[in-house]
Amino acid sequence: MAELLTAAQMRAIEQAAIASGEVTGLELMERAGRGVVEAIFEEWPELAEERGPAPAPPGYLQQEEGAWRAVVLCGPGNNGGDGFVVARLLRARGWAVEVFLYGAPDKLPPDARANYERCCEAGKVQAFAEFEPENWNWQTGEVGEVDLIVDAVFGTGLVRPVGSEIWLHEKIGVLTSGVVNARRVAIDLPSGLCADSGKPLIDTQDEIGRGKLEFELSVSFHREKVGHRISDGPAFCGKTVVKSIGLDDLPSSRAAARELASEIVRLTQPRLLDKAAESHKYTHGHALILSGGSGRTGAARLAARGALRIGAGLVTLGVPPNAQQEVACQITALMLARIDGAEGFAAVLDDTRLNALCLGPGMGIERARDLVPVALAARCATVLDADALTAFAEDPAELFAQLHEACVLTPHGGELARLFPDIAAKLNAPAMTGPAYSKVDATREAAKRAGCVVLFKGADTVIAAPDGCCSVNSAHYERSAPWLATAGSGDVLAGFITGLLARGFAPMQAAETAAWLHVECALEFGPGLIAEDLPEQLPAVFRKLGV
Ligand SMILES: NC(=O)C1=CN([C@@H]2O[C@H](COP(=O)(O)OP(=O)(O)OC[C@H]3O[C@@H](n4cnc5c(N)ncnc54)[C@H](O)[C@@H]3O)[C@@H](O)[C@H]2O)[C@@H](O)CC1
Ligand SMILES: [K+]
Fold this sequence. Notes:
alpha/beta, Rossmann fold, UDP-N-acetylmuramoyl-L-alanine:D-glutamate ligase, seven-stranded parallel beta sheet, binds ligand NAX, binds potassium ion
């Protein structure tokens, strides 16, 4: 179960370990620095090759050949401390390392200070003001190549925007634009990125401060932070590697983690499916998916196909009379029910074998307004998507009063803003202080208010239950599938959830498993995917999972 920690949770776990006496902060910092060096060589094995000796200071970087060259930028906290360890370890391997410190050495916290001093023993540490790549002359070779840039300015302790006196992205931008081989690694997080929200903290008065600071590799410790997986985090981090610093072996930190367990966000894990265990089709439930009128039935048909493929025993499309002919021509394996107004719908719902409903995809606002209350009154497991959410934009409270705990809402950003305008406003406001309000905070708050599971879509889909249970279905890094953002893909997702609800999954499990499988299907197919392809990948995905 991959956990994602906030800065405060990481601090609590670390502090518990240090306070217990089972480990010192200095030992943790040493392991962190070692982990970073290890990750650098794993990512770029060529850097581990032996090179000539480092030239004597000053002016390491004036040398054209010889040792590998690194620039390590250290900040005023323990992230800087990790940077000093990395600088020392690289120097010990014969690297030429320029180290710059933002802040005063005597203000460093004790562990970082100790490592600053150790680092100074093997070479100098310059003031950040000396770091002026904009004045370095690449053409004349005055500076020579930089092979590696290490960002150790701020980590989980970032609380405000990076000031214009640093302009880190500008400086690193200059450094990398002039140098072909400069690999960029961030310790823990790219400096300026909020560990909890994955948003860069920005000063709205400072245009330059809004630039992007993108890395190829970020090396974090113990667990990924939430910010590595949501919002801009993945784009800034490039690739995130987590290195152990031994905390899992310590009873003290394990106890601290147990205490936090109910608050910790996880990466979404699917619940494995076992359709083979039972064979009668009704044991796998009967899903009813409401369609819109003539010419608008495609979305519901996509959802229905998804529900069927994911294993619902039976799937019925509920169509208005004017669309009956159209839908009948298009479907196989699905059933058709004529559902016109609220009364007729209520009569259909008298069939107690119907155990999962889906309303919204292509439904039309009017029809959704009529039929959603009937669906919710039936107290059946229900997915509300698209038009079924927008239908309540003028009076979200009316919807909240009818929702129950067997519901799942699946808004995208626009739909979330219609139902929860205050939450969306907080989420979309410029992040000026850390920890900033995150997509996780927003989804949890929405789920609590709605009283049911909310799945907030995106490449960083966040799924939350009213009790705070929360996971992130991250389509990033090795699971990146940008081609999943295609018309109708959300309809299929709604169908997947409905199908799993029909199979008896609890709402949170259904939403999580469906979202996870949705990405797996996209990965299975690859680029060129259209929504119709998604359900058709499920058999191959299931085979791989062994179900
Ligand atoms: N012993 C420990 O606690 C360990 C900490 N580790 C490292 O320590 C980091 C966290 O250390 P810290 O909590 O000291 O935090 P940071 O090192 O991230 O930064 C905090 C310092 O920066 C200042 N600051 C924050 N935002 C600023 C801004 N925008 N402009 C100027 N100054 C700003 C703070 O006042 C504080 O002095 C982690 O990211 C990780 O890299 C690792 O070494 C593992 C062990
Ligand atoms: K950093």
